[in-house]
Amino acid sequence: MPENKPQSFANHARWDPIFHFFMLPVSALLLLWALAHAIRHFSHEALAWVVAALLISLIIFKARMYALKVQDRVIRLEERLRLANLPGRDVAVPALTEGQWVALRFASDAELPHLAEKAAASNLSPKQIKQAIQSWRADFFRV
């Protein structure tokens, strides 16, 4: 996503072309090919191809999930610190889920306290939090 384009709920999702349009489809095709080959021509070698293709697919998937999980934890920490350090903020930081914290990163400083309290009280989903944001704070660093 170009960094000069304003970000909003409608366009905040990021696509990594190498991951989404090359690694995922190619690993899925490799796995399907290996399965089809093993079904048609069953042998130990064909079974090894299925295991190898499955292993490659899992490595690709897990590497992406690990990176996103680490990033979510960093975002959670950043948002807790941001909320706690806002001027005039003297109440406790609400208990929110990781997904709620990650969604709150898009809220401006002015809306963050109210939206965080509302998310905690009403158990808003990350999507509901993002939809409730009036003044969008862009995040161009998501993996």
Walk me through what this model shows.
This protein has 143 residues and is mainly α. It has one domain. The protein has five helices and no strands. It starts with 16 loop residues before the first helix and ends in an 11-residue tail after the last helix.
Could you name the key traits of this structure?
mainly alpha; 5 helices
Write the topology of this structure.
Blueprint: H1 17-40, H2 44-84, H3 98-104, H4 112-122, H5 126-132
What's this model, at a glance?
By secondary structure, this protein is mainly α. Helix content is 63%, strand content 0%. Helix 1 (17-40) packs antiparallel against helix 2 (44-84) and helix 3 (98-104) packs parallel to helix 5 (126-132).
Number of strands: 0
Q: Largest sheet, if any?
A: none
Instruction: Kindly state the percentage of residues in helix.
Output: 55-70%
Structural class: mainly alpha
Shape: elongated
